[in-house]
Automatic annotation (TrEMBL):
The chain crosses the membrane at residues 26-46, 116-134, 140-156, 177-198, 204-222, 229-250, 265-287, 408-430, 436-455, 467-485, 505-525. Belongs to the nucleobase:cation symporter-2 (NCS2) (TC 2.A.40) family. One of its GO terms (molecular function) is transmembrane transporter activity. Pfam families: Xan_ur_permease (PF00860). It is found in: Membrane. The keyword Membrane applies. This is Nucleobase-ascorbate transporter 1. GO terms for cellular component: membrane. It is a multi-pass membrane protein. Keywords: Membrane, Transmembrane, Transmembrane helix. Its main location: membrane. It comes from Psophocarpus tetragonolobus (Winged bean).
Length: 572
């Protein structure tokens, strides 16, 4: 009891020393509240739990249990449709952000930007459907990737393209150059995937090595979180608080039947509320005299998508004209293909855990990378302006809603295709301000990072070897890309700056990716430091049975191809 009353005694004796100003009184009141809370609530909890601390155990679990629907179980159809539409709304952020950044630099107009967005959504729907049916078969959305920005900027800045005076002609020629580079570079994933080389390389992965890599898949996207949210805090902060409040504190509230709507549909509910709020702010003139960056981030009418999008447009291959091919452009784009392959591998690991599935075997992982390569080939043929990778935010949504159903993602692909052809309707949803998405990213990217870190439960974290590997991988995975990105911001080019532009773009892309840097460090250290003596410490006894398709009976349930196609493509 004396320990509990000690903070109160300290506060009462210190009150006479405070100056009688408003600010000091405010801080004193806050300090008093903290001390009261600590004295009467926190310390008694410590005393109660100390006796039972030794009895608490959390054994490693191969599959998460805290989800409502796994990969093969499906919610009711009405709920499934709403969940699928929620996935579509979420992936709009990246699908609008990338063309909004690249198309103006290519010389394109607002109409060109709207057409590129529609094309990107259309191809994303096709790629998602192919991946869910014939690839890894995990509930993973495949969409545009920021990994392709650096090689794309290198192509845009090509002197032969910059000499074109007419902006629309320069846009067309640049798009054709990007298409040619994507078509050639897609061969990397197609070859590594279908030849099973990537699956063989994955045998060097362990829970210890993949934990920080998957963690970096989420943590490496911090620049798309609060930095973007901060551009419009009057929209972003309410959105962040609303998402956390509804999905976590009100998740057990069920106003309609037995459906936890606040936990199941937090994106739809929160986006609708804050979007209407942002429309009201825009219409009332709240941003009339604000800086341009604030207006571009906050206003709902700055994207010019609704007015410029056609009522109906059906994207088709080579709609921008025949692709042009350049060896330098293709080599530069190959770096982004490698990065997207690494990031997708980490995202597949996270998606399998959030879908209550086993880690994808090497054969399934290679199959997924091969289909992703075909997806990049489609990006090049249709002209999306960027390549494809697994959408990390949609992987996080599996955990936030506790629904890992494959059918939900397959239906979301249908929404992508449908709304990409109905230009005006899709443009309405695409006009959602970016800070709304940034608030969602803060939650979802953090959730994916936590899933990665959870793989450490299968390792011995009392081993100094494992601590060093984990710590060094996480630190370098964040620090090295941060150095490259800061250099790019200040000097408008990466640290690698030679006369060979393709070489610069290649290395700058590789080392600007946290997951790729993390994979290089983790795989090297984990397979060279005391390997034989550390098999159990690395978690290999748990991991090894999932390397082959027939290593665990559950693999057949989760990853078997549909339509009895395994007869023609037998797994290994």
């Amino acid at each position: 009891m004396n320990i509990i009353l000690l903070p109160l005694y300290f506060v009462l004796n210190a009150s006479s020393l405070l100056p009688p100003s408003f600010v000091s009184s405010l801080f004193f009141s806050l300090f008093l509240c903290v001390c009261l809370f600590f004295s009467f609530l926190v310390l008694p909890l410590f005393e109660e739990e100390a006796s039972t601390m030794a009895d608490i155990t959390h054994p490693p679990m191969e599959q998460l249990q805290d989800l409502e629907y796994c990969i093969d179980s499906n919610p009711p159809w009405a709920e499934t449709m709403l969940l699928a539409f929620q996935n579509y709304i979420l992936m709009l952020g990246t699908s609008v952000m990338i063309p909004s950044m690249l198309v103006p630099a290519m010389g394109g107009s607002s109409g060109d930007k709207a057409q590129v967005i529609q094309t990107l959504l259309f191809v994303a729907g096709i790629n998602t459907l192919l991946q869910a049916l014939f690839g890894t078969r995990l509930p993973a959305v495949v969409g545009g990737s920021f990994a392709y920005v650096i090689p794309t900027v290198y192509i845009i800045s090509d002197s032969s393209l910059q000499r074109i005076n007419d902006p629309h002609e320069r846009f067309l020629q640049t798009m054709r150059a990007i298409q040619g580079a994507l078509i050639v570079a897609s061969s990397i994933q197609i070859v590594l995937g279908y030849s099973q080389v990537w699956g063989l390389f994955s045998r060097f992965f362990s829970p210890l090595g993949m934990a920080p890599v998957v963690g970096l898949v989420g943590l490496g996207l911090i620049q798309r979180g609060f930095p973007l949210l901060g551009n419009c805090v009057e929209i972003g902060i309410p959105m962040l608080l609303l998402v956390v409040g509804l999905s976590q504190y009100l998740k057990h509230v069920r106003p309609f039947r037995d459906i936890p709507i606040f936990e199941r549909f937090p994106v739809l509910i929160c986006v609708t509320i804050v979007w209407i709020y942002s429309v009201i702010l825009t219409a009332s003139g709240a941003y009339r005299h604000k800086p341009s960056i604030t207006q571009n981030s906050c206003r709902t009418d700055r994207a010019n998508l609704i007015s410029t999008a056609p009522w109906f447009m059906f994207p088709y291959p080579l709609q921008w004209g025949p692709p042009t091919f350049s060896a330098g452009h293709s080599f530069a784009m190959m770096s982004a293909v490698i990065v997207s392959m690494v990031e997708s591998t980490g995202a597949y690991k996270a998606a399998s855990r959030l879908a209550i599935a086993t880690p994808p075997p090497a054969y399934v992982l290679s199959r997924g990378i091969g289909w992703q390569g075909i997806g990049i080939l489609l990006d090049g043929l249709y002209g999306t302006g960027t390549g494809s990778t697994v959408s990390v935010e949609n992987v996080g949504l599996l955990g936030l809603t506790r629904v890992g159903s494959r059918r939900v993602v397959q239906l979301s692909a249908g929404f992508m295709i449908f709304f990409s052809t109905l230009g005006k309707f899709g443009a309405v949803f695409a006009s959602i301000p970016f800070p709304i998405f940034a608030a969602l990213y803060c939650v979802l990217f953090g959730l994916v990072a936590a899933v990665g870190i959870s793989f450490l439960q299968f390792t011995n974290m009392n081993s100094m070897r494992n601590l060093i590997i984990t710590g060094l991988t996480l630190f370098l995975g964040i620090s090295v890309p941060q150095f490259f990105n800061q250099y790019w911001t200040s000097a408008h080019h990466g640290p690698v700056h030679t006369n060979a532009g393709w070489f610069n773009a290649f290395l700058n892309t590789i080392f600007s990716s946290p997951a790729t840097v993390g994979l290089i460090v983790a795989v090297f250290l984990d397979n060279t430091l005391e390997v034989e003596r550390s098999k159990k410490d690395r978690g290999m006894p748990w991991w090894v049975k999932f390397r082959t398709f027939r290593g665990d009976n559950r693999n057949e349930e989760f990853y078997t191809l549909p339509f009895n196609l395994n007869r023609f493509f037998p797994p290994t």
